[in-house]
Amino acid sequence: MAWTPTYNILTPRAIPSNLATYCLDATRQGEALTWAGDGTLKLVKTLQNSIAEPTKPVYPAISFSSDDDAEEFGDEIIEGAYVCTFEFWIQHAAAGTAVTNARVYDKAFRSMIANCPTATLITGTGATTAKLLGLETSFEVIKTNEMRNDFLQVFQIRCSYVLFAGLNA
User: Fold this and answer.
1) What is d(CA 122, CA 130) in angstroms, rounded to the nearest whole number?
2) 3-class SS at 159?
3) Is the previous residue joined to 60 through a cis bond, with omega within 30 degrees of 0?
């Protein structure tokens, strides 16, 4: 007998992949980096599935860090909350340049996330609409190697969403 649920269940964990598809588009990312202040920066090429995955990352790098979701069932709608975090690694031989470049990547990626079309964002989630509630960025203390000739600036962007769908499957 086939499972026929009475209630929809959201699948918000499709959002990081949807955002990566949108933000890692070479043309869009290049234009966003130019808008953010430096169109000569290298493009981020791929989304790593985990911050623990890359043993030899290619900089600049982005990885999926964490996510949380919750659903509330009302009389006629499901309201879902979803929070996901991306981690970025920006490397350079000069500490100041690593920090400056990281700030440009942060601005460009926050802008692309904020401007991702709803239809793209909710693909595969089961939601009928969604709204970005907020973006948060946190920068870690810059790291260096023993010779102090290579610097790594790590930062995270945390995205908070609310999603909506009907109760019936």
Assistant:
1) 7
2) strand
3) yes
List of E strands, the chain: 47-48, 61-73, 77-92, 129-139, 143-144, 151-166
Q: List per-residue pLDDT tens for the chain, 169 residues long.
A: 788 877 788 999 999 999 999 999 999 999 999 999 999 999 999 887 655 555 666 789 999 889 999 999 888 889 999 999 999 999 999 999 999 999 999 999 999 999 999 999 999 999 999 999 999 999 999 999 888 889 999 999 999 999 999 876 4
SS3 38: coil
| Among the listed residues 4, 155, 160, 169, the one whose alpha carbon sits nearest the alpha carbon of residue 84 | 160
Residues listed for the chain: 169
User: Facing residues of 153 across strands?
Assistant: 90
Q: What is the SS3 assignment for 87? A: strand
Helix, coil or strand: residue 108: helix
Pair 136, 110: CB distance under 8 Å: no
According to DSSP, residue 124 is labeled T
Domain parsing of the chain, residue ranges? 12-49+61-166
Amino acid at 149: N
